[in-house]
Design goal:
The complex is a heterodimer of chains A (151) and B (731). Chain A folds into 2 domains: 2-74, Roll (Ubiquitin-like (UB roll)); 78-150, Orthogonal Bundle (DNA polymerase, domain 1), CATH 1.10.150.120. Chain A contains 5 helices and 5 strands. Chain A has helices at 20-27, 78-89, 99-112, 118-125, 135-150; strands spanning 2-5, 8-11, 46-49, 52-55, 68-70. In chain A, strand 3 and strand 4 (52-55) form a beta hairpin. Chain A is globular and about 45 Å long. The termini of chain A are far apart. Chain B is of the alpha+beta class. Chain B has 3 domains: 10-212, Aldehyde Oxidoreductase, domain 4 (2-Layer Sandwich), CATH 3.30.365; 228-299 and 358-437, Aldehyde oxidase/xanthine dehydrogenase, molybdopterin binding domain (Aldehyde Oxidoreductase, domain 4, 2-Layer Sandwich); 306-350 and 448-718, Aldehyde oxidase/xanthine dehydrogenase, molybdopterin binding domain (Aldehyde Oxidoreductase, domain 4), CATH 3.30.365.10. Chain B contains 18 helices and 24 strands. In chain B, the strands form 6 sheets. In chain B, strands 9-10-7-17-14-15-16 form a 7-stranded mixed sheet. In chain B, helix 4 (83-95) runs parallel beside helix 5 (129-156), helix 10 (378-388) runs parallel beside helix 11 (416-428) and helix 14 runs parallel beside helix 18 (706-718). The radius of gyration of chain B is 27 Å and the shape is globular. Classes of the chains: A alpha+beta (151), B alpha+beta (731). At the A-B interface, helix 1, helix 2, helix 3, helix 4 and helix 5 of A face helix 17 of B.
């Protein structure tokens, strides 16, 4: 099975119902994308599929053979940079395990809505669990990133 | 990811290199790590750089490389509470280093060099990282500084007393000489460390008390931070274990034929905790486990439901248990009191549910085993693994990895998870790296929960309107009982069952706290803030109700009874000032307050709440005041208060582990074991009370007050006193 990840094409010898998450992590050894729940509840496994944030833990390989998949290792662009800088500026992460997923989802939000309201932020990120509850800072960092992009 | 070579004997060179009590060596370190690479990732992935990889015998805590980087070996695991940054700050302060040259890495497992003074062995917990390392790490930094200065003085031929150090630069004004740390590292390593070096006065601090950026933020923002889950060794297999559906059940028989026939599955072995499936990758291992047919023996299993266990505990709570604390004449009960109140509370089992489930990479070879995992009690884990594999502890290397949260889950007396990893390696019998992974379902259903507790409180107000009686009976499983920490139990009282209750700060003349050890076959463990998770709730809601019964203000009433506890009173006054009182800003809302001391730190919180359309609580804002002594890194302290509030709030609102009839756990994943999500997170404002006392913990103390403060606000809003947690039952 062929998948395209971060601009490179890879031949994966795997059953077609294997979730994309395990192809990315176990086969391609791209480990920024995390396993947290396996049932699309926590968002730690979020990747971009044709520019849209998707839960790779419930996305079978057979559905993404024609797609452009981007993991955090392959992310770039103004929104991503703004999010990362905002994250660093106020030290958002604690344990850090969910943060790839948070950053991916936040980046997708800013691409969709450059000036999100707090409700927009909450709605966009409600699918990403952080057990350390860094939510106050996630919200702040998304606001900060949006302000920077606008300026 | 490369496996670190074992060519150097860690013990030997650490022994040779250990210098006296300060245990400090300055050394060259980190060959092969270019400056640019190091700058990219200010914190080092702990598994990648270890003392072995350094190549030259560095010592216990401080390493200074020719490229001027200062690497601090951190004896505490980093899973979000900030010890990498905090302990490095202490070293940098006394070393007069520049923050940009600081790096942090996990120390190896070594009970002697890296023991936690609070435990007497290596481990992290009880919010002790900064508190027990405060002087040790400062001394390590000061010693390093003195040796560098001496090396510079000899090289320049000037008196050491005339040399100054600032931001990583060593200077001598008279001769015009100056140089960076790295230039003197090798020469400094030749000298014996001086004894009894003076440390800075608080007024001289340059880094302590400032918001230095956290060392691990960058790599936790771009996906580069390596967790155990992320390790891939050549020839490695992934292992998933089928665990028993009830606690205490064991394997009766297993039919592994279909599992073994599953594509990618390499081996299936029975181990004490279940049946292990070894496969080429995670997905194959999951498929293999699904194909297993296991018959379980439930002869010794806990088959009661939590409803039955709770009924048993409630029954026992009707009579006082073993005396934990008492004064006055509590046994006189309601006699002579004008108004009385009795309340019964139930607290459910709680899973920790850290984002990264339990996992461990283990590579057992003849005569040595190497492990990589989020070990929180390294000394116990090391001994357990050694015993199972027939080795000496020194033959077990532990690379303590960044871990995706713990909240107590990874600190395991008796090391059951490390034991499972060792059994997985032993049963397979072949020398190849194995990655044992628990799924989320294994995690939620795997036990080691915050114990279920029932509290019964009786109290009363006398004719003068003063609270005159407090009689509290607690029923709960002992966490320390039968564990490696059993020595903590004094006169039959497990302190972790009554902490936060037996030391109630309020001046109530007739007072008693007693304890029944509840019995249940459910494995239990401390959970972020341990006994305070339930005692803060019962005491701070009950005092609120008693004050109401006495027609007293919740703040003034508390303050009037806190005469002997100025730091409790201090945070309470501070939070009231921060929130501008207990009157809500909008109609349809109410505020509640709670104050609680845990792990040496004092925290008061005010919560503002309204009611959602579905009648559940909507928490808008939390104000928090904390007194934790010297604030080493205020930003980290604020973050821990924010996180503790979110963690405690999520549990109070949604979390309970229930055993159904027959003893099976009803919850399996985040759908029914709900975690707080961003739209449920209130705004949080934190005030840190200024103090020059030695620092105390912040990882846990933010948790205890949030649930009672919420309950007090909720009672004011709705009239409903919530005594059975969680607030929101998920059917």
């Amino acid at each position: 099975m062929k998948i395209t990840v971060n601009g490179s094409s890879h031949e994966i010898d795997a059953p077609e119902d294997m979730p994309l998450l395990w192809a990315i992590r176990d086969r391609l050894k791209l480990t920024g994308t995390k396993y947290g729940c396996g049932v699309a509840q926590c968002g730690a496994c979020t990747v971009m599929v044709d520019g849209q944030p998707k839960r790779s833990c419930v996305t079978s390989l057979k559905f993404v053979t024609d797609a452009e998949i981007t993991t955090i290792e392959g992310m770039d662009g103004d929104e991503f940079q703004a999010i990362q800088n905002a994250w660093r500026a106020i030290d958002v992460p604690q344990c850090g395990f969910c943060q790839s997923g948070q950053v991916m989802t936040a980046t997708a939000l800013l691409k969709e809505k450059p000036a999100p309201s707090d409700t927009d932020i909450d709605n966009a990120l409600a699918g990403n669990i952080c057990r350390c509850a860094t939510y106050v800072r996630i919200r702040q960092a998304v606001r900060d990133a949006a302000d920077k992009l606008e300026a | 990811m490369s496996v670190i070579p074992k060519s150097l004997s860690r013990r030997d060179f650490l022994r040779n290199a250990a210098w006296g009590s300060a245990g400090l060596v300055i050394a060259m370190a980190l060959p092969g790590r270019g400056r640019a690479a190091a700058m990219d990732t200010t914190a080092i992935n702990s598994s990648v750089v270890s003392p072995e990889a350094a190549g030259f015998a560095p010592n216990a805590f401080v390493r200074i490389a020719p490229d001027n980087t200062v690497t601090v070996l951190i004896k505490h695991i980093e899973f979000g509470q900030g010890p990498f940054t905090g302990l490095s700050t202490l070293v940098a302060e006394e070393l007069d280093a520049d923050w940009s040259q600081m790096r942090a890495a996990s120390a190896p497992a070594d009970a002697e060099l890296y023991k936690n003074f609070a435990f007497g062995m290596q481990g992290t917990g009880g919010s002790t990282a900064i508190a027990n390392s405060y002087m040790q790490m400062r001394k390590a930094g000061a010693t390093a500084r003195a040796l560098l200065v001496r090396a510079a003085a000899e090289q320049w031929g000037v008196p050491a007393g005339e040399i100054t150090v600032d931001k990583g630069q060593i200077s001598h004004a008279g001769s015009g000489n100056s140089g960076a740390f790295g230039e003197f590292a090798e020469a400094a390593a030749q000298f014996d460390p001086p004894e009894d070096l003076p440390l800075k006065k608080a007024s001289e601090f340059k880094l302590i008390g400032t918001d230095v950026p956290k060392l691990d933020t960058n790599i936790k923002t771009n996906g580069q931070a390596l967790f155990t889950q992320d390790l891939h060794h050549d020839d490695m297999l992934t292992v998933i274990v089928a665990h028993a559906p009830q606690f205490g059940a064991t394997v009766k028989s297993v039919d592994a034929s279909a599992a073994k026939a599953t594509s990618g599955v390499v081996d299936v072995q029975q181990i004490p905790t279940g049946v292990a499936v070894y496969a080429q990758d995670t997905w194959s291992a999951l498929q293999g486990r699904r194909a297993l047919k296991v018959d379980w023996d439930t002869t010794n299993a806990e088959t009661r439901s939590t409803r039955e266990i709770t009924e048993d505990y409630r029954h026992r709570a009707q009579k006082p248990g073993k005396n934990a604390a008492s004064r006055g004449k509590p046994e006189q009960g309601r006699e002579g009191l004008a108004r009385t109140l009795t309340a019964e509370y139930t607290f459910p089992y709680l899973a920790h549910a850290p984002m990264e489930t339990l996992d461990c990479v283990i590579h057992a070879e003849d005569g040595a085993v190497e492990t990589w995992f989020g070990s929180q009690l390294q000394t116990g884990d090391q001994g357990t693994i050694a015993k199972i594999l027939g080795l000496e502890p020194a033959q077990v290397t532990i690379h303590t990895m960044y871990a995706g949260g713990s909240f107590g889950r990874r600190a395991q007396p008796g090391s059951p998870f490390a034991a499972e990893a060792a059994h997985v390696a032993k049963a397979h019998g072949k020398s190849r790296p194995l990655k044992l992974v628990w799924t989320r379902e294994d995690d939620i259903q795997g036990g080691w929960y915050r114990p279920l507790n029932v509290h019964r409180l009786s109290g009363g107000v006398d004719a003068d309107g003063n609270i005159a009686l407090w009689d509290q009976t607690i029923v709960g499983q002992s966490i320390f009982g039968g564990s490696a920490f059993a020595a903590m139990i004094k006169d039959g009282i497990d302190p972790s069952s009554v902490e936060g209750a037996e030391d109630l700060p309020y001046g109530i003349p007739n007072f008693r706290v007693s304890l029944h050890d509840g019995e249940a076959g459910v494995p239990i463990l401390w959970w972020r803030s341990v006994g305070h998770t339930h005692t803060a709730y019962s005491t701070e809601t009950f005092i609120d109700e008693l004050l109401e019964l006495a027609d007293k203000d919740p703040v003034e009433g508390r303050l009037a009874m806190l005469g002997e506890h100025p730091r409790h009173a201090g945070v309470l006054k501070a939070v009231v000032e921060l929130a501008d009182g207990l009157e809500p800003a909008e109609s349809g809302r109410a505020r509640g307050v709670a104050v609680h001391k845990s792990f040496g730190s004092y925290v008061a919180q005010i919560v503002e709440v309204s009611q959602n359309e579905d009648l559940t609580p909507k928490v808008h804002k939390v104000w928090c005041a904390v007194d934790c002594g010297v604030a080493v890194n205020p930003n980290v302290i604020r973050a821990q208060m924010e996180g503790g509030i979110g963690f405690g709030l999520g549990a109070a609102l949604y979390n309970e582990i229930t055993l159904e009839e027959g003893g099976r756990v009803a919850q399996a994943n985040f759908d029914r074991y709900r975690s707080l999500r961003i739209h449920e997170m209130p705004d949080v404002e934190v005030h840190i009370v200024k103090s020059d006392k030695d620092p105390t913990g912040v990882g846990e103390p933010g948790v205890p007050p949030i649930a009672p403060a919420l309950a007090n606000a909720w009672r004011r809003l709705t009239g409903d006193a919530v005594r059975d947690l969680p607030f929101v039952k998920i059917s």
